[in-house]
């Protein structure tokens, strides 16, 4: 499946047994009811686009869509992998829609976005893992507006020769691939993924195109230790990752990976402080941080701090 954090919604809770840990008040979000939210939803529906905001039941959807910040999910909404934390459907994937890049570009133009985040499900069934489709989307967006900055959140492209080269030639502004969790938990949580391979693609993309900013993220609350998180952050920096995101894991249902802990605000501050000490160019570390949460503002800060 695509690398992104897992989310939870009231709809999912209705169809699942109660999760044991009581959710702290700093995790709560308002229901999406604004006019801006409904406008974004209508546009996405009209253009027949998939969004990770909807498919993964993101808790930030109300806030983001009110501002017309929509994270598009390309290559269908059925994943070829089954990570235990993720709420995306798993099964036989959809046929690749060749009209999607043009429709996506029109949506970005209609939303008047200055910064867009594009993600996808894992497509192990495709020869290039979907790299060419990512490239086509980037190119079509820039045909309509060359000023839009583009962030892509990609799968790991395991055994997909030349995928990184295809992506690098398309020249996205930000290349994001989430490590998601600590190495010890990979076999249990990220079945089919490989920690060292994920680190490698984050490092290697810069060898193809050193102008691309790299970004990766972690969920916390899955049973990892603080020291293990620190170790992953060190690995990220040793593999040229510029920007780290850290957010609280929220269990979508009883059938998903068990939530072991809610981190306190003080613990998030401790993680953020350590991340800056390790030398990241940009850090986003809060309970509700997700890969694309405030991505436009963070990218603007990233450029300003490193001008």
Largest sheet: 7 strands, parallel
Distance between the termini: 35 Å
How much strand?
A: 5-15%
CATH superfamily: Aldolase class I
Task: Examine the coordinates and then state which fold CATH places here, giving the name of the CATH topology.
Answer: TIM Barrel
What's the quaternary structure here?
single chain
Structural class: alpha/beta
- What's the shape? globular
Q: Determine the number of helices (DSSP H or I, runs of at least 4 residues).
A: 12
Q: How would you write the strand order of the largest sheet?
A: 1-4-5-6-7-8-9
Task: Name some characteristics of this structure.
alpha/beta; 12 helices; 13% strand; globular; 307 residues
Task: Give a brief description.
By secondary structure, the protein is an alpha/beta fold. It has helices spanning 10-14, 35-46, 52-55, 61-66, 100-111, 131-144, 163-170, 186-189, 195-208, 226-238, 265-278, 295-305, and strands at residues 72-74, 78-79, 89-90, 115-120, 149-153, 174-176, 213-220, 243-248, 282-285.
Tell me the layout of helices and strands:
Blueprint: H1 10-14, H2 35-46, H3 52-55, H4 61-66, E1 72-74, E2 78-79, E3 89-90, H5 100-111, E4 115-120, H6 131-144, E5 149-153, H7 163-170, E6 174-176, H8 186-189, H9 195-208, E7 213-220, H10 226-238, E8 243-248, H11 265-278, E9 282-285, H12 295-305
Parallel strand pairs: 1-4, 2-3, 4-5, 5-6, 6-7, 7-8, 8-9
Helix pairs in contact: 5-6, 6-7, 7-9, 10-11
């Amino acid at each position: 499946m695509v690398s992104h954090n897992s989310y939870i919604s009231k709809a999912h809770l209705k169809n699942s047994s109660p999760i044991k840990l009581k959710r702290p008040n700093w995790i709560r979000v308002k229901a999406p009811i604004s006019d801006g939210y409904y406008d974004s939803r209508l546009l996405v529906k009209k253009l027949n686009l998939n969004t990770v905001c909807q498919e993964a039941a993101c808790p930030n959807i109300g806030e983001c869509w009110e501002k017309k910040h929509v994270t598009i999910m390309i290559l269908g909404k059925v994943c070829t992998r089954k990570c235990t934390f993720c709420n995306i459907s798993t099964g036989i994937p959809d046929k690749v829609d060749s009209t999607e890049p043009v429709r996506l570009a029109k949506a970005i133009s209609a939303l008047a976005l200055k910064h867009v985040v594009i993600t996808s499900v894992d497509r192990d069934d495709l020869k290039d893992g979907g790299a060419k489709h990512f490239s086509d989307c980037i190119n079509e967006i820039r045909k309509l507006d060359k000023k839009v900055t583009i962030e892509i959140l990609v799968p790991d492209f395991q055994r997909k020769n030349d995928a990184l080269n295809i992506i690098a030639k398309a020249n996205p502004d930000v290349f994001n691939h989430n490590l998601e969790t600590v190495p010890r938990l990979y076999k249990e949580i990220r079945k089919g993924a490989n920690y060292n391979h994920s680190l490698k693609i984050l490092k290697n993309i810069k060898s193809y195109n050193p102008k691309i900013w790299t970004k990766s993220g972690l969920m916390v609350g899955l049973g990892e230790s603080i020291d293990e998180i620190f170790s992953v952050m060190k690995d990220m920096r040793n593999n040229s990752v510029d920007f780290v995101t850290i957010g609280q894991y929220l269990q979508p249902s009883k059938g998903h990976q068990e939530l072991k802990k809610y981190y306190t605000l003080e613990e998030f501050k401790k993680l953020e402080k350590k991340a800056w000490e390790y030398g990241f160019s940009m850090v986003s570390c809060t309970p509700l941080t997700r890969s694309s949460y405030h991505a436009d503002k963070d990218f603007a800060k990233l450029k300003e701090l490193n001008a």
